[in-house]
Specification:
- Keywords: Coiled coil, Nucleus, Transcription, Transcription regulation.
- With about 180 residues, the chain is of the alpha+beta class.
- The chain folds into 2 domains: about 1-80, MYOD Basic-Helix-Loop-Helix Domain, subunit B; about 85-180, Alpha-Beta Plaits.
- It is about 55% helix and about 25% strand.
- The chain is built from 5 helices and 6 strands; from the N terminus they run H-H-H-E-E-H-E-E-H-E-E.
- A 6-stranded mixed β-sheet has the order 3-4-2-1-5-6, covered by helices on one side.
- The longest helix is centred in the middle third of the chain and has 34 residues, at about 45-80.
- The chain is elongated.
Length: about 180
């Protein structure tokens, strides 16, 4: 009887070890799915679970908000008048990437495009266009242009250009240095 009880104890220990390893693996997978925290040390499992729950709740709120916006926009289209078309102002976003700039311009199909002015100002300031692309989605045109930049004073020119054309072109906003400036 002795050999069977010791083998069953070994089996239980092996099963428990396997279960612990599976739980550790699942916790590691969970940790990779939630955003990184500033702390470099590994979180205890209860804290990790709390963060995961908070993250899921936050994502749920984001989804609900985006669905609400989509429904409002769809309702405007169903009513026969697209609210975004009549209120769509061009949006200029400039992102600093060190020695490069990413310029994004979103404009409506029926709006006056000032892409040429943006390109002219940047090239006058010494920026060199590396690549450009555009796509049309619905009633909007999305332009993306990458520039190689040699001078940092280019940002002042972008803001100046934006202020110069704001009245004429009804530009809603510009993003420079990662900060959003509304007019």
């Amino acid at each position: 009887m002795q050999p069977s009880s010791s083998s069953s104890k070994l089996d239980r220990n092996a099963m428990e070890k396997k279960r612990r390893l599976q739980m550790k693996d699942l916790a590691s997978r969970l940790a990779t799915l939630i955003p990184k925290q500033p702390s470099k040390k590994r979180l205890p499992l209860p804290d990790l679970l709390d963060q995961a729950i908070a993250y899921v709740k936050q994502q749920k709120q984001n989804i609900d908000e985006l669905e609400r916006i989509r429904n409002e926009q769809n309702k405007g289209v169903e009513d026969g008048k697209d609210k975004t078309e009549s209120s769509m102002f061009p949006v200029l976003a400039v992102r600093d990437m060190g020695s490069a700039l990413e310029v994004n311009l979103i404009t409506g199909l029926n709006k006056k495009v000032f892409l040429h002015e943006v390109c002219s100002v940047l090239e006058e300031e010494g920026a060199e266009a590396v690549s450009a692309s555009y796509s049309t989605v619905g009633d909007k045109i999305f332009y993306t242009i990458y520039y190689r930049v040699y001078l940092t004073s280019i940002y002042d020119s972008i803001i100046y250009m934006h202020e110069q054309y704001i009245g004429e072109l009804d530009v809603l906003s510009v993003v420079v240095y990662g900060q959003h400036v509304q007019y």
